[in-house]
Specification:
By secondary structure, the protein is mainly β. Helix content is 4%, strand content 45%. The protein has one domain: Jelly Rolls (Sandwich). The protein has one helix at 278-289, and strands spanning 27-30, 32-36, 39-45, 56-67, 74-80, 83-91, 94-98, 103-106, 111-115, 120-125, 132-142, 153-157, 162-165, 168-174, 176-177, 180-181, 190-197, 200-205, 211-218, 234-239, 244-249, 253-260, 268-270, 273-275. A hairpin with a 2-residue loop joins strand 15 and strand 16 (180-181). The longest helix has 12 residues, at 278-289. It starts with 26 loop residues before the first strand and ends in a 27-residue tail after the last helix.
Length: 316
Amino acid sequence: MSGPVRTEDVPAVATDAIRPAPNPTVVVTDSRTSQVGHVAVRRALPQRTRRTVGAWCFVDHMGPVPVTEDGGVDIGPHPHIGLHTVTWLVAGEVLHRDGLGSEQVIRPGQLNLMTAGHGVAHAEEATGRYRGDLHGVQLWVAQPETTRHGPPAFEHHAELPHLDLDHGVATVLVGALGAAASPARRDTDLVGVDLDLRPGTTVVPLQPGHEHALVVLDGAVALAGTAGPVRPGHLAYLGEGRDELALTVTAPERALLVGGEPFESPVLMWWNYVARTQGEVGAAVRAWNDPDDARFAPVTSRLDRIPSPSPPWERW
C-alpha cells in the first residue's frame, strides 16, 4: 500500500533537513497523488520542502477505494531497509506476509508494525474473503543510527489504548498521548494518534518539544491559523512548542496526528529504502535483485516479486 518514493517526491540525495519551526505555526501543503499497485494514494510525506516530522518520513493516505476478495491490494514482495512500516486501517482488511514468516490480516482498530533494520521483504495482498471499501494509511518511520542496521522484526497489536477527549476519542498507535501509551515499538521519541472526532471543539494534549503534523482522513477539520478547514489531500505542519491543539468539526470526522523529536540526521529516501548514502541504497538494490543473496529472506506470496529499479544516480 505504500511506496515507492520517487525523485518527484524528494531529491535522490541526502540533504540537510529543514529544521522545524521553533514556535507554533501552521503550514498547509498539498499531498501528491501517486499510484501504488491498483490503489491511488495521497502522499502527504515526504515532500521536497519537508522530508520528516519527527522520525515520520512517509505518509500514504489510501481510499476509500473498493477492493475484492482477490484483488485491489496487490503489492508483491518488495524490500525495505532502515525503517518501520506502520499500517492503520479505518475500513477494510489487508493480508501482510513477510520474509520472517509472518502472515497477518489487519483490520480496523489494529496495528501492524514491521521493522526493516538491515533488510526485510514483505507483500500486501487481498485477504481472499473481504469485499468492500479499503481506507487507511501506511506510514514509514526512519530508524536512528543505533538500530537501523539491526535485525528485522514484525509485531501485530489487536488492541490499542484509547484516550477520551472533549468531543472524541484518541487511539494511540505509537508512543504516548496523556496517560495512554501504545505497546508498539518505537526507536525514537515520537507519537502517532488516530483522532475520531465528534461535533464541537476538541483539545488534544501535545509535547512542546515535539514537532507535529495533522492529516485529515475524512471530512474537514478547522484549526487556528488556517484560512479554512483542512481536508483530505493536505498536510498541516504545526511546528514545535505546542502543549495542546484545538480542533473543531461540525460533523463526525477522522484525522491522524503525527509528531516527535526532530530527527537526528538527514535521510536518503529512494524507492522502498531509507538510508543515509547512495552506496547503502545501491548495495540494497543489488542484494534484492540477486536471487542468491541472503540479505532479504524470501516471501511466500501469490504475487510476483517486484524487482528493484536502478537508482537514478547510476543512470546519470
